[in-house]
Design brief:
It is built from four helices and 23 strands. With about 300 residues, the chain is mainly β. An eight-stranded antiparallel sheet has the order 7-8-4-3-22-23-19-15, with no helix packed on it. A four-stranded antiparallel sheet has the order 2-1-5-6, with no helix packed on it. A three-stranded mixed sheet has the order 10-13-12. It is globular, with a radius of gyration of 21 Å. The protein starts with a strand and ends with a strand.
């Protein structure tokens, strides 16, 4: 399968070993998660305990670099099959707590530098400095980055390329798909975590601030949450519950297109396709690639939020 992808294990002794016999791989990332995830199954004869890092190159670039989070081996009919799950290094931003409290005059690089260093994670430079951000106890570094991004740019952070934290959408490449490349086009509606209303307490302890999700109400969803005062929003407390509603509705609607092959697509690339009587043109919000039997199939997702 080397012609479409290359899977490399970094071992405990520092050496690297290419997986020569890949059975199946699944790569996934989207604009709202803190990193990609790679899972798969290969034929492997070494010690699974010695595998520390996993890299995947496809579409002409390194698309995944992560740690070996879970490994299992099975001896089946005389051959050893190794299954693994590898979160990207940047996923650890969602698994480490930041220094709590107020941080004044920080940009993205300063915020990350103030907390534990995650291996192989970088960030974009030249970002805006905000007057302050407030970090809650027992939140995550990714939560702090999200709070910074919301305050600085009014948007959400994402992982661009391989393990690079970005807070500004970056114009990527443009892909035009032919109808013959399209396997299927579909749509999803996900109401599983969508809030209908969020409340936040004011300084007096009363829940004076709220935000209603009109779409949830129209869909008959009743899911309300009450939150204590979040000092991140002291300057504009009405934005606190609004933020909670927006987070809950990020995957409300999506369109997906499954295609033959993989061409190196990444989130915030754009695409255009005419197939099945439809013309779709948008930014890529999510990406799934399956490598199997010497072939690749790519699913690109368009994600639309509601508030």
């Amino acid at each position: 399968m080397a012609e479409i992808c290359t899977l490399v294990f970094r071992l405990r002794d520092g050496s690297e070993q290419e997986a020569a016999d890949i059975i199946k791989l699944r790569f996934y990332k989207d604009r709202y998660t803190s990193g990609s995830e790679l899972s798969g199954k290969v034929i492997y004869t070494g010690s699974p305990r010695d595998i520390l890092e996993i890299k995947l190159t496809a579409g002409g670039r390194l698309i995944h670099h992560g740690y070996a989070g879970y490994i299992r081996t099975e001896n089946i009919h005389g051959r050893v099959e190794l299954s693994f799950i590898s979160p990207a290094w940047s996923c650890l931003l969602s698994q480490n707590e930041p220094v709590p409290g107020l941080s004044y005059g920080v940009d993205l690089a300063g915020l990350l530098a103030a907390n534990v260093t995650i291996p192989n994670v970088t960030c974009e430079s030249g970002t805006d400095t905000v007057n302050y951000i407030y970090v809650r106890e027992h939140s995550t570094i990714w939560d702090a980055v999200t709070a910074y991004t919301k305050k600085a740019y009014g948007s959400f952070p994402h992982i661009g390329g391989t393990n690079e934290v970005r807070v500004r959408p970056t114009a990527g490449r443009t892909f035009t798909y032919a109808a013959g490349q399209v396997i299927t086009i579909g749509r999803t509606v996900d109401r599983r975590v969508m809030l209908s209303k969020a409340y936040m307490a004011g300084a007096d302890g009363e829940y004076s601030y709220s935000w209603t999700n009109a779409q949830a109400a129209a869909d008959g969803i009743v899911r309300e949450r009450y939150y204590p005062l979040d000092r991140q929003w002291l300057g504009s407390p009405e934005d606190g519950p609004k933020f909670r509603v927006e987070v809950s509705a990020r995957r409300y609607r999506s369109t997906f297109i499954r295609l033959t092959g993989y061409r190196g697509e990444d989130i915030f690339d754009s695409f255009s396709v005419r197939a099945g009587g439809e013309h779709l043109s948008s930014l890529i919000g999510g990406l799934e690639v399956i490598f199997e039997c010497g072939r690749a199939a790519t699913t690109v997702y368009v994600m639309n939020t509601v508030s």
